[in-house]
From TrEMBL:
Keywords: Methyltransferase, Transferase. The keyword Transferase applies. GO terms for biological process: methylation. The keyword Methyltransferase applies. Pfam families: Methyltransf_23. It comes from Fontibacter flavus. Its EC number is 2.1.1.222, 2.1.1.64. Gene3D superfamilies: Vaccinia Virus protein VP39 (3.40.50.150). Signal peptide: none annotated. This is Class I SAM-dependent methyltransferase.
Length: 311
């Protein structure tokens, strides 16, 4: 439905026609409704009214706040060897960050920031692989932590980062922030010349969004404040001087089983519900995995990894 409220797209700046979608909070099953506006120009989505009590929707057991899992020295040594082999093209199981670092050719001495780092697990795995200047920023962690001399977590926002960086990463973080324009502008200013910005994020290009609408699991009302299209995010980044390098769709089976769960009115936390058990069976997962691979190849998966470069 159209809206009479004057809105401006957070990504392309369009002011005019928006379609409003009434979306339920489903992760925790509160059932509250929140309005999202879709831009008629770039297709990006944004929450119309951000709740004043937004922090209440991030309880202590929220997934990104789980305890950091550290490995034994021997296991870390194996991780170091694995990444070294991967970097030179020897076929091994890559670490989760392997493809990103190889694509950008990030050296181990690079100064790297992970914005919205949560418990810092990704940075820890990079530390184990030999990276030596790692910083995590997240205003919602309980306290600042120095994990080791090479890895520190700061209870600060993107606007409180100190110094400059060779790589800034945001893994499913930008969609949780207000004013993505200010965030990208800050990142551009904090990057060294030749530095990289890596953004992994749900995107409104998703076929699941087109097919299933308000039941799309990655709407995640009201925690996701904005969900860009690839076109919208690219235009915004380029407006601040970034050069778009590459887009890789990396959606998973979650887009299918999570959306079907929400269609059935079942909370993501209700793991004992018969529908949850049915949707996450081995056979269903195999089918969803094949479908996710196809969607990613076609560029219609529900999340993507975007590489931006500061020339």
């Amino acid at each position: 439905m159209p809206t009479d409220k004057r809105l401006s797209c957070s990504y392309c700046g369009h002011e005019g026609d928006f379609t409003i979608h009434h979306v339920k909070e489903m992760m925790f099953g509160s059932g509250e409704h929140f309005d999202y506006a879709s831009c008629s120009v770039c297709g990006s989505l944004q929450l119309v009214d951000v709740p004043a009590n937004l922090g209440d929707y991030y309880p202590k057991d929220y997934y990104s706040f789980q305890e950091l899992v550290q490995s034994s020295p021997f296991k870390n040594f194996l991780k170091l060897i694995r990444y070294s082999l991967f970097r030179v093209g020897i076929p091994v199981q890559p670490p989760v960050f392997g493809d990103w670092m190889v694509e950008m050719q990030v050296p181990k001495h690079a100064r790297i920031a992970d914005v919205g780092c949560g418990n810092g697990q990704l940075l820890y795995e990079m530390y184990a692989a030999g990276f030596i200047h790692l910083e995590g920023y997240d205003p919602f962690i309980d306290r600042e932590k120095t994990i080791n001399p090479r890895l520190s977590l700061f209870k600060k926002s993107v606007f409180e980062m100190e110094g400059s960086f060779d790589l800034i990463m945001m893994h499913h973080a930008l969609e949780h922030m207000e004013s993505p324009d200010r965030v990208l502008e800050q990142c551009f200013g904090k990057l060294n010349k030749g530095g990289w910005l890596l953004v992994r994020i749900p995107v409104s290009d998703a076929q699941v969004w087109k097919d299933e609408g308000i039941n799309w699991v990655q709407l995640d009302a009201p925690r996701h404040l904005t969900i860009p299209s690839v076109k919208g995010l690219t235009a915004l980044a380029e407006g601040f001087g970034f050069k778009a390098h590459k887009v890789v769709f990396d959606s998973t089976v979650f887009q299918f089983w999570g959306t079907e769960l929400y269609k059935g009115g079942v909370s993501l936390r209700d793991v004992q519900h018969p529908l949850y058990i049915s949707l996450t069976s081995a056979q269903r997962m195999k089918e969803y995995q094949q479908k996710a691979l196809l969607y990613n190849q076609k560029g219609i998966g529900d999340q993507a990894c975007l590489y931006f470069y500061k020339g």
